[in-house]
């Protein structure tokens, strides 16, 4: 158990030593000079040593006082700084993630509540764009990009590969491939032309069907709007089975026929050359876990 003199005596001594005056110490502590003198005297009796040489209009530290003063000064400064830190709201960490509009709407956004529950002190800023944004500096901390790469100057880690198949609302659940000639087909534009783009033409070839000049009656500029049109019952679209997995599971959408064809790969991408900060690492591990690619280690 610590044996310490009263805190009031220590405060009076520290203030008097700092000002070199009982009067100014009393003004700071909102007491009388006599009260300061009594507190200092009590501390001197406790220690058995004179701490001040009392002179006219001022007090001067003795050798014992000079040894005690910096210890108390630094201690009170530490108390003050600690209390200031505790009284101020802590700055929150923020992680900015950029990805495509469709991935944001149908895969990432529905999952962010799980991240907030796991990391309540980290804020997410989600940026949706079908064009690649800069990473690092004032750009995004990390991105989920769709394609084959390469991604120069970046670390790119596969998240999962995509598959596409005809998907529709339950109104089309009984449809067969023989009905494709008169069913409304929905399509969307790919920003970049690539032989692996999952198109209706590729799907008809994989299904060993002749398209017979069939073409989409409804075409959107992005995948997210095509998914919305399918949910509204406007036709059948060749959609990512990963992005609409929840809708297929809860029955809002159906996959009336096969096959499924491969698409591209979603990659976790961040700037090379330095380790991501701790909040970014937390987001990376969470994304890996959501995609089922997090390798759990045991000690």
Describe this structure in words.
Belongs to the LysR transcriptional regulatory family. This is LysR family transcriptional regulator. GO terms for molecular function: DNA-binding transcription factor activity; sequence-specific DNA binding. Keywords: DNA-binding, Transcription, Transcription regulation. It comes from Pseudoduganella lutea. By secondary structure, the chain is of the alpha/beta class. It has two domains: 7-87, Arc Repressor Mutant, subunit A, CATH 1.10.10; 94-291, D-Maltodextrin-Binding Protein, domain 2, CATH 3.40.190. The protein is 37% helix and 22% strand. The protein is built from ten helices and ten strands. The chain has helices at residues 7-19, 22-29, 33-47, 63-87, 101-108, 112-118, 200-206, 223-231, 245-249, 278-291; strands at residues 52-55, 58-61, 93-99, 122-128, 142-147, 154-167, 185-188, 218-220, 236-240, 261-271. An eight-stranded mixed beta sheet has the order 4-3-5-10-6-9-7-8, sandwiched between helices. A two-stranded antiparallel ribbon has the order 1-2. Strand 7, helix 7 (200-206) and strand 8 (218-220) form a beta-alpha-beta unit. Helix 1 crosses helix 2, helix 1 packs across helix 4 (63-87) and helix 5 packs across helix 8. The two termini are 39 Å apart.
């Amino acid at each position: 158990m610590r044996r310490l003199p009263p805190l009031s005596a220590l405060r009076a001594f520290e203030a008097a030593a700092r000002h070199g005056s009982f009067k100014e110490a009393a003004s700071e502590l909102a007491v009388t000079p006599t009260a300061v003198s009594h507190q200092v005297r009590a501390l001197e009796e406790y220690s058995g040593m004179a701490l001040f040489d009392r002179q006219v209009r001022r007090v001067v530290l003795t050798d014992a006082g000079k040894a005690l003063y910096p210890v108390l000064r630094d201690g009170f400064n530490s108390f003050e700084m600690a209390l200031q830190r505790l009284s101020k709201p802590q700055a929150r960490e923020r992680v900015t993630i950029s990805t495509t509009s469709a991935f944001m709407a149908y895969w990432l956004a529905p999952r962010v509540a799980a991240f907030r529950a796991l990391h309540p002190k980290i804020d997410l800023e989600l940026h949706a764009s079908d064009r690649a944004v800069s990473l690092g500096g004032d750009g995004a901390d990390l991105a989920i990009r769709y394609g084959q790469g390469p991604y120069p100057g970046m670390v790119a880690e596969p998240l999962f590969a995509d598959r596409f198949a005809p998907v529709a609302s339950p109104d089309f659940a009984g449809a067969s491939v023989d009905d494709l000639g008169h069913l409304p087909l929905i399509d969307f534009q790919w920003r970049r032309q690539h032989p692996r783009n999952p198109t209706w033409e590729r799907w008809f070839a994989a299904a060993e069907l002749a398209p017979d000049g069939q073409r989409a009656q409804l075409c959107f500029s992005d995948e997210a709007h095509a998914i919305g049109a399918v949910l509204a019952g406007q036709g059948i679209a060749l959609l990512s089975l990963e992005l609409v997995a929840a809708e297929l599971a809860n029955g809002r959408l159906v996959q009336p026929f096969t096959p499924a064809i491969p698409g591209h790969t979603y990659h976790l991408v961040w700037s090379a050359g330095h380790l991501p900060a701790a909040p970014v690492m937390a987001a990376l591990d969470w994304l890996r876990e959501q995609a089922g690619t997090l390798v759990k280690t045991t000690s």
